[in-house]
């Protein structure tokens, strides 16, 4: 499979790492390009054995799949660059938050094969949770190619496009919320006098263990929480503090706000650049 990346930032890098680790393609079958940072492209070339180019005709000719991995605000400028070289046999996979399939079709051509995906940065360790949606021009073969790409970086759920703003908020941004909680756990460990390295190991194992329990026991999160919470014990006091600070509601509001932002990101780009 020959695959190119328009945009060579954290998300492109995470997907490339997965593709190569799982031998989905060879480094020489991957082209990367960005706006102007040649140094970054050379670094990727050295690290992964991928090729880089600013020649869009060559990049597009080479590609079965073109991954659109620029920030949503740069979507339009990246479309302008590649539009002259679009052909009907290329599968475009956008990982851009908020950018709709119809906007991509408007810019690249109504009959283009387009997938809109929302992975997360855990892709770089093969643990992404990815939602993906296809337009009707994506053939079964191309759907298989896309499944190969995303299964190399973790699990994938095929969904209706209207689910993707929610998925962006839930699992696209999700790792950041978990890291935010870990930052707070690390600070509390310091404040209660634990040794930093030991605390870090304990936190990581606690996270991994809780994830494994959720995955393998089939029990609901609330039931697992209750099993930890001994009446009159320590957890009960801790949870009472979380309730006092309305942490549950804050997380619900956080994810709803992120989903709204994903919708707004798409709308603002689309209204700025009517074709
Ligand atoms: N970082 C994350 O956790 C996730 C990001 N995404 C999405 O992935 C996309 C990329 O995000 P990051 O990799 O974090 O961004 P980034 O800022 O690390 O990388 C963006 C890349 O796009 C390039 N670029 C900008 N304009 C360009 C143009 N006109 N032509 C060619 N290249 C251009 C930049 O030079 C840079 O290499 C975003 O749309 C984001 O919504 C999706 C899932 C998770
Ligand atoms: O923050 C963002 O906009 C991107 C999309 C999901 C994760 N990062």
UniProtKB/TrEMBL annotation:
<dbReference type="InterPro" id="IPR008927">
    <property type="entry name" value="6-PGluconate_DH-like_C_sf"/>
</dbReference>
<feature type="domain" description="Pyrroline-5-carboxylate reductase dimerisation">
    <location>
        <begin position="161"/>
        <end position="265"/>
    </location>
</feature>
<comment type="similarity">
    <text>Belongs to the pyrroline-5-carboxylate reductase family.</text>
</comment>
<keyword id="KW-0521">NADP</keyword>
<dbReference type="Pfam" id="PF14748">
    <property type="entry name" value="P5CR_dimer"/>
</dbReference>
<dbReference type="GO" id="GO:0004735">
    <property type="term" value="F:pyrroline-5-carboxylate reductase activity"/>
</dbReference>
<keyword id="KW-0963">Cytoplasm</keyword>
<comment type="function">
    <text>Catalyzes the reduction of 1-pyrroline-5-carboxylate (PCA) to L-proline.</text>
</comment>
<keyword id="KW-0560">Oxidoreductase</keyword>
<protein>
    <recommendedName>
        <fullName>Pyrroline-5-carboxylate reductase</fullName>
        <ecNumber>1.5.1.2</ecNumber>
    </recommendedName>
</protein>
<dbReference type="InterPro" id="IPR028939">
    <property type="entry name" value="P5C_Rdtase_cat_N"/>
</dbReference>
<dbReference type="InterPro" id="IPR000304">
    <property type="entry name" value="Pyrroline-COOH_reductase"/>
</dbReference>
<dbReference type="Pfam" id="PF03807">
    <property type="entry name" value="F420_oxidored"/>
</dbReference>
<comment type="pathway">
    <text>Amino-acid biosynthesis; L-proline biosynthesis; L-proline from L-glutamate 5-semialdehyde: step 1/1.</text>
</comment>
<dbReference type="InterPro" id="IPR029036">
    <property type="entry name" value="P5CR_dimer"/>
</dbReference>
<keyword id="KW-0028">Amino-acid biosynthesis</keyword>
<keyword id="KW-0641">Proline biosynthesis</keyword>
<feature type="domain" description="Pyrroline-5-carboxylate reductase catalytic N-terminal">
    <location>
        <begin position="2"/>
        <end position="98"/>
    </location>
</feature>
<dbReference type="InterPro" id="IPR053790">
    <property type="entry name" value="P5CR-like_CS"/>
</dbReference>
<dbReference type="InterPro" id="IPR036291">
    <property type="entry name" value="NAD(P)-bd_dom_sf"/>
</dbReference>
């Amino acid at each position: 499979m020959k695959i190119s990346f328009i945009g060579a930032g954290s998300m492109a890098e995470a997907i490339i790492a997965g593709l190569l680790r799982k031998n989905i393609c060879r480094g020489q079958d991957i082209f990367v390009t960005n706006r102007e940072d040649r140094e970054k492209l050379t670094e990727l070339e050295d690290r992964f054995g991928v090729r880089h180019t600013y020649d869009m005709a060559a990049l597009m000719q080479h590609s079965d799949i073109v991954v659109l991995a620029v920030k949503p605000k740069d979507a339009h400028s990246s479309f302008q660059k590649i539009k002259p070289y679009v052909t009907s046999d290329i599968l475009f996979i956008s990982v851009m938050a908020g950018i709709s399939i119809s906007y991509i079709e408007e810019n690249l051509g109504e009959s283009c094969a387009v997938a809109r995906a929302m992975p997360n940065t855990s892709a770089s360790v093969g643990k992404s949770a990815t939602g993906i949606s296809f337009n009707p021009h994506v053939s079964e073969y191309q759907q298989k190619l896309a499944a190969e790409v995303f299964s190399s970086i973790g699990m994938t759920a095929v969904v209706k496009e209207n689910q993707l703003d929610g998925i962006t908020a839930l699992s696209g941004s999700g790792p950041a919320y978990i890291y935010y909680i870990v930052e707070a756990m690390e600070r509390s460990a310091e404040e209660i006098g634990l040794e930093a390295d030991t605390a870090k190991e304990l936190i990581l194992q606690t996270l991994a263990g809780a994830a494994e329990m959720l995955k393998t026991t089939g029990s609901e999160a609330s039931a697992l929480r209750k099993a930890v919470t001994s009446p009159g014990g320590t957890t009960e006091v801790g949870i009472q503090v979380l309730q006092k600070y309305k942490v549950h509601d804050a997380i619900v509001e956080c994810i709803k706000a992120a989903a709204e932002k994903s919708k707004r990101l798409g709308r603002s780009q689309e209204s700025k650049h009517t074709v």
